[in-house]
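Quiz preparation item.
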């Protein structure tokens, strides 16, 4: 693990393959957090967490064969899941509510005569820009970008890109107003 000496990592956090993780100054990782990946190489950075970012208890960061990049001054609240095989990028000053989940991959299921697990996946990735507030229990699906300054209401499911400075709510999430 590459980190500066002024980070806090709970002794109850589970961190696998530390050589693939980069922590910046002031990162806090609380108890019962799981940080893991399935990639074969332990030399490449697969998880990068920016300065003064807080990962609250019971959060899962598991990029599998992708990468997770979290900017500075972010907070990831308890019970969040950052998973998937595609890349996930979270910009600076972003707040993510309890129980939210990010899935940067999609299963292919077009052919009903072939088992879904054998049809493969797509991996477009997810981008969350700077200064975004994501409410509790939001789900963000593959191929989505959430623009700078957006607010996503609690319980929303984001299936399409949200333009900057939008407020979006619902299942599926729809823009209800602009902040600018």
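Solution:
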């Amino acid at each position: 693990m590459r980190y500066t000496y002024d980070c806090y990592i709970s002794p109850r956090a589970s961190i696998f393959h530390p050589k693939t993780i980069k922590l910046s100054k002031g990162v806090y990782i609380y108890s019962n957090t799981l940080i893991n990946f399935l990639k074969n190489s332990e030399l490449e950075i697969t998880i990068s967490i920016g300065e003064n970012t807080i990962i609250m208890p019971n959060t899962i960061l598991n990029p599998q064969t992708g990468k997770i990049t979290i900017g500075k001054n972010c907070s990831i609240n308890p019970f969040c899941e950052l998973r998937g095989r595609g890349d996930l990028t979270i910009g600076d000053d972003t707040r993510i509510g309890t129980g939210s989940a990010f899935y940067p991959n999609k299963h292919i299921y077009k052919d009903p005569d072939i088992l879904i697990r054998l049809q493969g996946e797509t991996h477009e990735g997810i981008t969350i820009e700077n200064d975004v507030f994501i409410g509790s229990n939001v789900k963000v699906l593959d191929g989505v970008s959430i623009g700078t300054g957006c607010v996503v209401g609690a319980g929303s499911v984001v299936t399409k890109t949200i333009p900057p400075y939008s407020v979006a709510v619902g299942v599926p999430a729809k823009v209800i107003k602009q902040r600018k």
